[in-house]
Design brief:
Layout lengths: L3 H20 L1 H16 L3 H4 L9 H7 L5 H12 L12 E6 L10 E5 H7 L1 H13 L7 E5 L6 E2 L5 E3 L1 H6 L2 H4 L10 H4 L4 H14 L4 E8 H24 L9 H8 L7 H11 L7 H5 L5 E5 L8 H8 L4 E2 L2 E3 L4 E4 L12 E3 L5 E7 L15 H4 L15 E2 L8 E7 L7 E13 L2 E7 L4 E5 L2 E4 H11 L8 E11 L6 E10 L10 H14 L2 H8 L7 E5 L3 H11 L16 H9 L1 E6 L6
Parallel strand pairs: 1-5, 3-6, 6-7, 7-8, 20-21
Antiparallel strand pairs: 1-2, 4-5, 9-10, 10-11, 11-16, 12-13, 12-14, 14-15, 15-16, 17-18, 19-20, 21-22
Helix pairs in contact: 1-7, 11-12, 12-14, 18-19, 21-22
Length: 601
């Protein structure tokens, strides 16, 4: 494990290392690509594209196609089934990283070598250094992070597949490093029972409340779920603190053993204080009340997680929201060098040593690909033909040639056998730090709703809902989360939205004014594109329906996906539901339904 020496150097010279990386971004990228090609040009996959072994970088960009996961899945499946790893790369594979699988169903398997895994462990160390440099007091206490793991899966090859975070939390680098500054004992993090794990981590966080200077989770959805869990269990938690005795239903031996060194005696005064805070009808500012020394809330709140920003700001009571980094299962993209930026202004700086990056231009509003490439080589990527409302595109550009203000889909080539791989994420370039691009994360461009010729993307839906919820804010009503699906059980079909709403002063379901809710429906439809409006006017698509669900319904949806194999620590609420069971679950929590006017356009 290349850990100790390199990790020590990062702790001692982390900011200097960042300056060197970003100042020499282009050179580092070129060196990385050259190294990848020298190592792997002889593999079964790459050798098909190089004539007589000519593996020059320019041949790579000309000959090697840009691909999606489905294109390389047969190769990965062969490796998972036990064939030699030289199919995709020369170095031996050590494990597979699983994608979350929440949005697209079955998780992807991403190959990982020892070197590529170790390189990714540098990112959290750099993030921690940046945050401590920019936010005073973070080195004076503990971090209350809510971390969770998911069971590993053994592939037929004998290699294990797991979430990156699950593998990372089991390393000595984490256990001997960042874990020492966290409130949660490592055994509570590694507990496979998410309910027991969350209960013990919350209990520890409350017991050590005066030492906590930072609170967070991997994704905002996890933190929101944890607060709901606290709402349900604060009385029992207070009872444990008051009596000094852990609840009997915590049966995991490692958890009980870990908690025995923290829950050591009755603390009735602390229990009374926590009870007094939690009994308040309004939980506005609850995080600040329970953890008075907290300097920031650290959790990814960009992209699809941005829907949780108002909720976390409500619970945070003015505590800064920090979105520390951006990446995917395939590769780490970058980190936030200005952690105190407002959530909607966050830009990440590309780390050029994490992968070789290329950038496919997309529409200037970020709302669609420039054209539907048949990405099978240079002839496709160099085409400049435009269609419909899309902009002209020549070919992918490298890191040094992106333009400020433009939108790009990320294409990565990694140390672990992904070559010109479309991740699916879209970035807007906002500037440069030294010579490394800075970007804002934009929601994935995948189509989430489709009826007839209409193709509504995640971005389209997000923008429409953001406009519509503005009607509710003056009334003290918060949209806490949402989802959707295309209902084609009737003719004509319609789009259905699910919204979970709450009053700012309580968790009660707000009184729903039919005219206001119908106005929200209308704003959503007016925000959609020309194709949708034309089909709606022609009667091909019926009036949009909005179903409001009771508080906690989307937590039940998370529990449903976790029970199907999703990870609570990396859960991303599905923008569009494909599962009939999931739709049925949300329908069971419905407290009101509203429609747009039958005729609008």
């Amino acid at each position: 494990m290349a850990g100790e020496k390199e990790i020590k150097e990062i702790y001692e010279n982390g900011m200097k290392i960042l300056e060197e990386l970003t100042s020499n971004a282009h050179e580092i990228q070129e060196q990385m690509l050259e190294e990848i090609l020298i190592r792997n040009a002889g593999t079964e996959y790459l050798s098909r594209f190089f004539v007589h072994g000519q593996n020059h970088k320019q041949n790579f960009k000309t000959n090697v196609p840009i691909v999606s996961y489905e294109d390389i899945k047969p190769y990965i499946d062969r490796i998972a089934n036990g064939e030699t790893s030289s199919i995709l790369f020369a170095d031996p594979i050590t494990q597979f990283i699983q994608s979350t699988g929440t949005s697209e169903g079955k998780p992807k398997l991403i190959p990982m070598t020892a070197e590529s895994f170790e390189k990714r462990m540098i990112k959290p160390l750099l993030v921690d250094l940046v945050m401590k440099k920019c936010i005073s007091g973070l080195d004076q206490g503990k971090s209350f992070y809510l971390f969770f793991v998911k069971p590993e899966m053994e592939t037929p090859s004998g290699l294990m597949a797991s979430l990156y975070t699950t593998s990372y939390f089991k390393t000595q680098i984490f256990k001997n490093g960042l874990a020492k500054f966290c409130t949660s004992p490592i055994d509570t993090i590694l507990c496979l029972d998410n309910k027991q794990s969350m209960y013990c981590q919350l209990l520890t966080g409350l017991l050590l409340r005066d030492e906590v200077v930072r609170i967070g989770s991997s994704f905002a959805s996890v933190l929101a779920r944890s607060i709901k869990f606290l709402e349900d269990y604060w009385k029992e938690l207070c009872s444990n603190i008051r009596t000094g005795y852990l609840s009997d239903w915590i049966a995991d031996p490692a958890c009980r053993n870990a908690m025995s060194s923290i829950l050591t005696r009755p603390e009735p005064e602390l229990a009374d204080l926590i009870q007094q805070i939690c009994e308040d009808k309004s939980w506005e500012g609850i995080i600040k009340e329970l953890w008075p020394e907290v300097k920031c809330i650290s959790s990814i709140v960009t992209g699809s997680m941005s829907q949780y920003i108002p909720l976390l700001e409500f619970y945070g009571g003015g505590i800064p929201l920090v979105s520390p980094n951006c990446g995917s299962s395939e590769a780490c993209f970058g980190i936030n060098l200005k952690p105190l930026s407002k959530p909607f202004d966050v830009s990440y700086t590309i780390l050029p040593n994490m992968a070789y990056f290329e950038f496919l231009p997309v529409n200037n509003d970020g709302g669609g690909m420039s054209r539907e490439f048949e990405l099978r080589g240079a002839s496709a990527t160099e085409s400049s033909e435009s269609t419909n409302e899309t902009t002209t595109v020549n070919k992918p550009v490298d890191l040094a040639n992106v333009k400020i203000g433009r939108y790009y889909e990320v294409v990565v080539t990694t140390l672990a056998g992904l070559y010109r791989y479309r991740v699916g994420d879209v970035l807007k370039v906002t500037g440069f730090y030294n010579k490394s691009p800075q970007f804002q994360f934009v929601e994935r461009q995948n189509v989430v709703l489709s009826i007839d010729l209409d193709k509504t993307t995640e971005v389209d839906l997000s923008k429409a809902i953001t406009r519509a919820k503005l009607v509710l804010e003056p009334l003290g009503i918060m949209l806490t989360t949402y989802s959707s699906y295309a209902d084609t059980s009737l003719t004509p079909g319609r789009y259905v939205l699910f919204w979970e709403l709450k009053m700012k002063g309580s968790n009660d379901v707000p009184k729903l004014d039919a005219k206001i809710m119908e106005e929200c429906c209308g704003i959503v439809e007016e925000s959609f594109d020309f194709t949708y409006k034309s089909l709606r006017k022609a009667g091909v698509i019926s009036a949009l329906e909005l179903r409001v669900v009771k508080h906690g319904t989307f937590d039940e949806l998370m529990d449903f996906y976790v029970s199907k194999g999703a990870s609570i620590s990396q859960y991303k609420p599905p923008c569009c539901l494909k599962s009939e069971e999931a739709v049925k679950l949300l329908n069971s929590g419905m407290v009101g339904t509203f429609f747009s006017p039958k005729t609008m356009f």
